[in-house]
Design goal:
12 helices, mainly alpha, MetI-like fold, two-stranded antiparallel ribbon
Length: about 290
Amino acid sequence: MNQSTFNNRALPYLLLIPTFFILVVFLFYPAVETFRLSFFKIHPWSGAETFAGFYNFIKIFTNEDYLRSFVISAFFALVVIAAGLLFSLLIALLLNQKIKGMRFYRSFLIWPYALSPAIAGALFNFLFNPANGVICYFTGFRTWLTDEKTAIIVVIIAAVWKNLGYNIIFYLTALRNVPSSALESASIDGAGSVKRFIYITFAFLSPTTFLLFVMNTIYAYFASFGLIDVLTEGGPAGSTKLLIYQLYKDFFVHSKIGYAAAESLVLFSLVVGVTVLQFRTAGEKVHYQ
């Protein structure tokens, strides 16, 4: 068999130049600049820079509003991840059944993922708006978005619903790869449906669950800005001001450039730390077949 040869060694590098350019301009340079700015005080009007060392970081962790956002974000992420994976798995199990018209139901339940966070926020604003919300009309309760205890619940529900389709797609694909022979053997041995799910089905789903655990963590901390901005704008009384929204307010509204840069590094380090912890703990229990 004749094998073709490629003699131009420079051409592959030339083809990679556009990719390297995009990475440098839109990823590496902003990351380096953010790291640099986090150690400076920057005047909001003149742009004058004054080296401040760790001043911004010290100010962050002595700011009660930021620490409150830190706790709210952790609670939000925990509930969104747990509820999102649980409901996605249950729905995927139902969608995996051989029922007439199941393709229609699958496409219907997956489409929310195609919506942008802002559109999803607008839909939930339509449902829970105190003035003319549909849910408010039927429940008679009009403070869903204006009460501190219920506003965070609405945001969590919206975030879980928005990412539901993404999780379902992965779980459906993983369920298709569960060998029926293993389930049949367990059934012959007398294992009930619950045991078959725990010891066989879920074992084969562990790599997918671990992947979704990591991706939902990133989603909860970074991709929830649109929902917050449209639904509550961080209110009422800062009860839904997550770290990503706090970062937006400090940079774009209050023009605290150095302070916001330090916030972004803290947020990035937090998510990286949580991800590494997941790999060190839950990652060891994942079984790749």
